[in-house]
Amino acid sequence: MTAPQFSSAPGPQPGACRPRWTTLAMLSVALLVLPLAAGCSKEASSEKQDSAPAASAGDPTVARVNGVDIRESDLAMAEQDIGQNLQNAPPETQREQLIAYVTDIILVSQAADASNKKLSEDPDFKHHLAFIRSKMLMGLQLRDQAKGAVTEEAEHKLYEDAVKPMGAEEEVHARHILVESEDEAKAIVDQLKGGADFAALAKEKSKDPGAADGGDLGYFTKDQMVPEFSEVAFKMYPGQLSNPVKTQFGWHIIKVEDKRMRPVPELATIKEQIDAYLVRRAQSEYVGKLRQTAKIERLDAPVAPPRMSAPPSMSAPQAPAPQAPGPQAPAPEAPAPAPK
Length: 340
Fold this sequence. Notes:
alpha+beta, Chitinase A, domain 3, four-stranded antiparallel beta sheet, two-stranded antiparallel sheet
C-alpha cells in the first residue's frame, strides 16, 4: 500500500460578475452531476414538501429557485465539482459562483422535465444514474465498514510496528556540489582544501537544483540516495570532504555536516496519518474479502489474465524522503581526508 502523502488548477480571475465562459463551463459540468440535479427538477419541486427533509440549523437554505431550495450542503457538493476552477477567486466570489452553478442546474433540469422529450427515460441517462448510485452506495458502505477501524489500541500497535523501527536507521546530513567533469570537480576540491566556503562554492559552481541552498541535502537514510553516493557519504564523518564521486548526473563533491539515528516522531504528531491509514486498510481488506467470494468474469479477452487484488493499499506512515542526487553509476573513489 502507498503511504499517506502530505502533499491547483488554474481558475478564473476574480471579478465583480460571473464571466460568460464560467456559465457555459458550469452547464457542461452539470451534465455530469445528475444526482445533484435529480432533487432539483420540476417533479421534485412539486413533491419537495412531502419527500425532502426540512432544512436544519446546520444545513440552512441559502436560496430558492422556482420553489426548489438550495442549501449549504448543495453548495458543498457543487464545490466538489467546480471548486478547482474557483481557487483563485476570493471566498465571497466563490460562494456566488457556487450558488449560480446550482441555480443553473435547477433551471436546466426543470426545463428538461417540462419538455416532452422525456430525457430522464433515456437509456444513457438511466445507465449513468445507476453507475453514480452504485458509486455513492460504495462510499457509504466503505465509510460504515471503517467505523471501528480507528481505536487507541490499533493506533498504538501501528505506531509500535511501523513507526518506531525507523529509529534504528542512521541518517546523514550532507551538502554536495555537482559539476560536469572530473577535472572541474578536482579543482573545486582543491579550492575547498584551500579554505573556500563549501556553501558559497555550491551556489556558484553546482548545477544541482539545490545549489541555491548551498548544496544542502538535509538528512537522509542510506536507501534514499543512489548506492554510489550513499556508500561514500555513510563512511564519512562530520566535517569530512570527499574526493569526486561519479554518478550519471556528473561529478559530486560531498561534505558531511552531521550523522544521527533517525528521530522517531511522537504518535500525537502523526495521529492523523495513522488514522487515515487504518481507515484505508480496513476498507481495502473489506473489498478484498468481497473479491474472494465474488464471481468476476472478464468478457473482453485480455491478453494476460489480471492478478486480482484489493484496492490500492498503504505502507506505514513515513517521513518525506529527500531527492536523490542521481541514479546508479560506476563506483566512487574513497573519501579524502578532512580539510585542515
